[in-house]
Amino acid sequence: MCCVIIDNGVGRTKSPEGKKTGEHRSFGTLITRERLAIINQLYESGLSENIVDLYDADNKGCGTRVEIFIPFNV
After folding, report:
1. What SS3 class is residue 36?
2. Closest CA to 8 of 49, 68, 67, 65
3. pLDDT, tens digit (0-9, with 9 covering 90-100), for 19-50
4. Burial letters for 41-64: b for 16+ Cβ neighbours within 10 Å, e otherwise?
5. Angstrom distances, CA of residue 30 to CA of 33, 34, 44, 73
6. What is the DSSP string of 1-67?
7. Could you report the per-residue pLDDT of 60-72, keeping only the tens digit for each?
8. 50 bridge partner residues
């Protein structure tokens, strides 16, 4: 199974430009990767993720697509 989350923001490359320097550091991606690693270690589940930067026709960042893959154990 694949769980897809699409964020239609400015994208990861442009995102830091809109933030005040030094005041905020995002840990969302790091925390998600650590959680998946812990679940995989505990349950040998084979969860994985893929992050894709989205661009419009003018090659400007227009969001991010996150795919979380959840294997079925049949």
Report:
1. helix
2. 65
3. 556 666 778 889 999 999 999 999 999 999 99
4. eeeeeeeeeeeeebeeeeeebbbb
5. 5, 6, 20, 27
6. -EEEEEE-SS-TTTGGGGSPTTT----HHHHHHHHHHHHHHHH----EEEEEEEE-TTS-EEEEEEE
7. 999 999 999 999 8
8. 67
